[in-house]
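Researcher: Final request for today, and then I'll write up notes for the group meeting. The sequence and the SMILES for magnesium ion follow.
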Amino acid sequence: MRVAFVGKGGSGKTTLSSLFARYAAAHGPVVAIDADINQHLGLVLGAPETPPPLGGMLTEIKEYLRGDNPRIKDAASMVKTTPPGRGSRLITIDDPFFPSCRVDGVRLMVTGPFAEDDLGVACYHSKVGAVELYLNHLIDGPGEYVVVDMTAGADCFASGLFTRFDLIYLVAEPTLQGVGVYRQFQQYAADYDVAISVVGNKIQSPGDVEFLRAHVGDDLLTWFEHSAAIRALEQGRPFTLDDLEPGNVQALGVLLSTLDARPKDWEKFGRQAIEFHIKNAKAWANRAVGADLTAQIDPEFVFGPTLSAAGSGR
Ligand SMILES: Nc1ncnc2c1ncn2[C@@H]1O[C@H](COP(=O)(O)OP(=O)(O)OP(=O)(O)O)[C@@H](O)[C@H]1O
Ligand SMILES: [Mg+2]
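Model: Predicted protein-magnesium ion complex:
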């Protein structure tokens, strides 16, 4: 199951991604991916090192994932939205090809920071494209978790990335700005049939909860109190989930059980992968590669686990 944490800058995406990843690790394998321009997830998780960034090995990733799919002639003609087809290498959550480091039972992967020499946001999008490729080729099942800490604001909606998840948690502080981002996201989510739930954060009073409820209604799933334990974590003190306030542990439980309860919809996943690939091909990729990339779509390929075993061997 895949989940992304999105929201306004500073709302708590990284904090809640890291807490959720640790919490979920007690229930199954977890990959946590830092896909933010400012890479903080490793720090908050207490990772001893930074793994090699996925954004720096896009060609190798493409080469690996295209396998012997005859519709993708080389890594250079594979773009972030190129969908898998027969012959593509489909991966599982524990695929060792993707560099990671282990911390607290979580496998951390990173896209890499926004470098000085990245000209314009488009370049950062190509780094995040590594995550899109990873998720497009991943066959995950119940009790396996991919947690992605996203860039602030509506950036993830600039690509198809936001349709690659089973659920999106929108972290919102009880402020007008916090709920403002929700409105923006709600529209995109509705247009693409993407499940989104609001997670309140830094709640200090019942009035804060009422405020959120008044603005987001039933989309408010749960909330985290303003936490002394999180502050201590931020100050670099030793931290375990046992230090967390009971209400906040309970909120983590709600996040996990809600994600677990989401039905997997591979048909929609495949349909949207193709939809976004066609969009990207027409908008820029055909021109960039100098070929009609819609020919990469394999009409016989079926997304999901049933054909993965048979499909990957071909
Ligand atoms: N429930 C909480 N209680 C106390 N402090 C919190 C809580 N949640 C987050 N914080 C603090 O708020 C600050 C911002 O949190 P965080 O870095 O997780 O936000 P973010 O959304 O990832 O920010 P950015 O947009 O910069 O990536 C941090 O100092 C963090 O420790
Ligand atoms: Mg962050």
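Model: The pocket of magnesium ion (ligand 2) is lined by residues 13-14, 36, 40, 149 (CB under 6 Å). The two ends are 26 Å apart (CA to CA).
Researcher: Thanks, that's everything.
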